[in-house]
Amino acid sequence: KMAGPIFDSTRKAFPIYARAIGIDPKSVTWVNVDPALRETLLARGDVDAISGFELDKLTLMARGVKEEDIVTFSYADAGLKLYSNVLLASAKLIADHPKAVAAFVRATNRALIEAIANPEESVSYTKLFDPLTDPKTGLAKMKILLRVINTDFAHANGLGAIVKQDLEKQVAEVAVAFALKTRPNADQIFNASFLPPKPERIPRTPAIR
Questions:
Q1: pLDDT tens, residue by residue, 115-167
Q2: Residue 33's CB: how many other CB atoms inside 10 A?
Q3: CA neighbor of 29 nearest in space, from 41, 20, 37
Q4: Which end is more exposed in the chain, N or C (fewer Cβ atoms within 10 Å of the end residue's Cβ)?
Q5: pTM for the complete prediction?
Q6: Kind and range of the H or E run holding 2
Q7: Structural domains of the chain, ranges and CATH numbers in brackets
Q8: Distances from the Cα of 78 to the Cα of 59, 94, 129, 152, 202, angstroms
Q9: Cα separation of 47 and 49, whole Å?
Q10: What rounded mean pLDDT belongs to the chain?
Q11: Helix/strand/coil (H, E, C) string of 84-105?
Q12: Which residue ranges in the chain fall short of pLDDT 70?
């Protein structure tokens, strides 16, 4: 029995993972739950597992679960290559304000490069936007995120780079998992033309392995 919000992306992608490890997705009973209660259900033993991201283990630990008692099943470990968070822009915005889009992408890239180089300092800035932010928790989250951002691939290709074949495969898998009526074209989804030059997208600190 697993718990997760019905709109949760990791829950929606679970059938892809299930097939990759050889289990029937329909063999799992799902419990619909509010995001704020998901970790609590697992901590109490009401469910066997939850959908989510590795960051969510910090919430479990805050609920009294020991880190050594938490088992994470990574989609990547099953051989899946699923691209995650991105910058989205409408076709109209790109057509009408290409310079603004390019500037926003440059700023985002610069922020990531600086955050990778100075995680403690980057976390301290979040208090300017959210005074209730706990720096210790924020740094713990950042260290988890950096493991999937500051990678060998990022050093070889630059932040924001993709492998087109992997994206095409993901589009096909997601189209099935999300029951999409039409399958998007990978070229319509990803636009690399606004990325800064590759040297500007290479992290300055060694990759995390």
A1: 999 999 999 998 888 888 888 999 999 999 999 999 999 999 999 999 999 99
A2: 22
A3: 41
A4: C
A5: 0.85
A6: strand 2-4
A7: 2-78 (no CATH), 91-201 (3.40.190.10)
A8: 24, 36, 37, 19, 27
A9: 6
A10: 93
A11: CCCCCCCHHHHHHCHHHHHHHH
A12: none
